Amino acid sequence: MEKTIRKYCNVYRKALLFRHCREIEAKTAAYQSRLRKMYASDGFKAHSVYPTTNAAHVYAVIAMCLEMKALGLTDTEIIETVNHGFARRRSFFRRIIRAIDLLPNSFSIAKKWNIQDHDRRVKDGSLTYDRFDAGEDRIEYRISRCVYIEMFEAYGIRGLCKIFCMTDTTSYENLRRHVTFIRHSDLSDGDACHDEIIRRRKFTFRE
Fold first, then answer.
1. So what's the pLDDT on residue 205?
2. DSSP structure class, residue 177
3. What whole-number distance in Å separates Cα of residue 180 and Cα of residue 186?
4. pLDDT in tens, 48-64
5. Which residues on adjacent β-strands are paired with residue 134?
6. Which of 23, 189, 169, 176 shows the shortest CA–CA distance to 83?
7. DSSP calls for 38-98
8. What pTM was estimated for this model as a whole?
């Protein structure tokens, strides 16, 4: 766990540099102390039971949000700063998704991801689906309960779970050739996560 804490301290330090904060080492030490206590909490033990959810990662992000709130940053500034701290990680996944976007069967790949994720999430109970429809050219689902939201809500910062809710939107922005992603709502500021993933077809018009 100490190795994990050091890794996230480096991410937090990078985020503070982006925000041009002063006394970065002291602020990083405060983050380290907070995160260590959070990892030792009963809440972390309870949230670590879901195999599909990386509770250590989520708690590290929550600790960053709490520290940045204490520094007086707005929610918008916090989201921007946290995302910058994980810029290298995000860039890695962006390159993978852009490579998949070049494939003619990218919608089929996205469909398979969603079906597999749905099955795993239902099995471990980390998400509650009120609806999940997977057709030939379209996937639509509605989620009314999410353990990510519950973790953020436990620390009084439900709205900042938008950091995780945005990952789907960001991913599908790089998967445009054959896929259209529509987000109707998410649980960070609504009563459900309601998404559609649609196969984008090319039409040939005759004059």
1. 39
2. S
3. 17
4. 999 999 999 999 999 99
5. 139
6. 169
7. HHTSHHHHHHTT-TTS-HHHHHHHHHHHHHHHHTT--HHHHHHHHHHHTHHHHHHHHHHHH
8. 0.88
